[in-house]
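Reopening this one. Same input as before:
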Amino acid sequence: MRTTGREVLRRSIAGQRRSVALAALLTAGHQGGEALVPVVIGVVIDRAVAGGSAGTLVLWLAVLGVLFAALSTSYRLGARFGERAAERAAHDLRLDLGRRVLHPAGGTESGTLAGELVSIATSDAKRVGTVNGVLPFGVAGLAGLLVSAVALLTMSLPLGLLVLLGTPPMLYLAHLVGKPLERRSEAEQERSAFASGVATDLVAGLRVLKGIGAERAAVDRYRRTSRDSLRATLRAARAQAWHNGALLALTGIFIAVVALVGGTLAASGDISVGDLVAAVGLAQYLITPFSIFSWVNGELAQGRASAARIADVLNAPPAVGAGDATLPNPPAGHVRLSSLSHGVLRDVAFEARPGELLGVVATDPAAATDLLDCLGRAADPASGAVTVDAVDLSTVDPSRVREVVLVAAHDAGLFAGTVAENVGTGPLAAEAMAAAAVDEVAGALPDGVATAVTERGRSLSGGQRQRVALARALAADAPVLVLHDPTTAVDTVTEARIAAGLAELRCGRTTILVTTSPALLAAADRVVLLDDGRVAGEGRHAELADRADYRAVVLS
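Same output, byte for byte:
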């Protein structure tokens, strides 16, 4: 079932209904008490001041004191529950988005920058969560209007009816006024999220940009993106200003009408002096609930726009479908590609036997990427099949595929934490670090494997990052391990050591090396050559080295 922005809002509110209800009850009490203040002052004037009774004056002043104490308490507690509901709702939305983005079936990353997803999971989730915090104040504004109307009805039927009958049209006009703000807020959030995504990608690739001298092109691209975001923000700001100004004008006209009617009634003697003071005070108080409505309406408009963006992520079609087939437990790790076509791959057929270390050389980098997608079931082939132990992976649940087949991408990033924490604490962690030559990395670091690593491993060199990432993949001890160019930033001596360690550690486990490294390919049991998206040859590294197409890729 497709989730709409309205459904996102509804679920967000339903998930925090207890806190929202308590906040609404307390803030409604606060606004109702605020509306009673001018009424009590009117009573003081009529009964104490006009009557000249000091005892009555002290009594009603005490009533005012109790009223203000109740106002303070109810507001503080109501605001606390409202803020709690807002923060918890935003937290729940972030969890929902995280689960969808990290779902094994994938799909959310298609056509969306990583920074854009981060923006949706932070600013948009916060705006939707804020709706839970502002709704109680909207209820409180209605409560204040209701108390005001009842008080005015007891003083004068025309005044009470004026407020009761005039409020619904005012609320409808406020809703119409908020429509342009909602549309422009959505555009602003889209452009802002896209700008964040571009900035994130540029920062992540800063070293590459500097290496190829593309700083100017990168700056120009971000400048254009930022300007688009700025224009959208300015349009949203103008819509916000127009929205607030229009509501303020409508509110002023309504209050002026109430004051005019009250003054006319007092002049004709239909209401007392105290009632007139109360009526004027209530007319001035009406600014508060209508200001609340203006604020709530603006937050709702932005919340609806953000909810629609969140719904788009939650509704992103999965890259691969679910499956109900099962893989053997434990798996033997026999991988077979049968007439597989996907992307640039055409009718590819080869196998990796159980426990074999198979090298795959692709003359086209796109062929390597498409092969990795199919092996890890990040995508299902257009035709043909990838099977593990004679089970078609396209019929297996993606999460189960990940348990059996681990694809370690070439650009695998590290996490903030220590070197040891990045590798993990499994039974093979120490052996994996030795096989990947991480012990050499640790020897060059101030605290060894306990040295802290910054986000994405930027505090390490490229070769150090690769070795830690390789150790992490080896430590997982997957039945089938697929490695993509794990040593491109490592010197030849260390690469030869890694090749020997990898072959020893993975002995008895199926390993597929998609690489052009001579050292790694020399350690492989067999090598498959993919040229122009097709299998062009197969044999040991030394045998294929006689081929010109193989030498051009591997030995050049």
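So the earlier flakiness isn't reproducible anymore. For the record, The chain has 19 helices and twelve strands.
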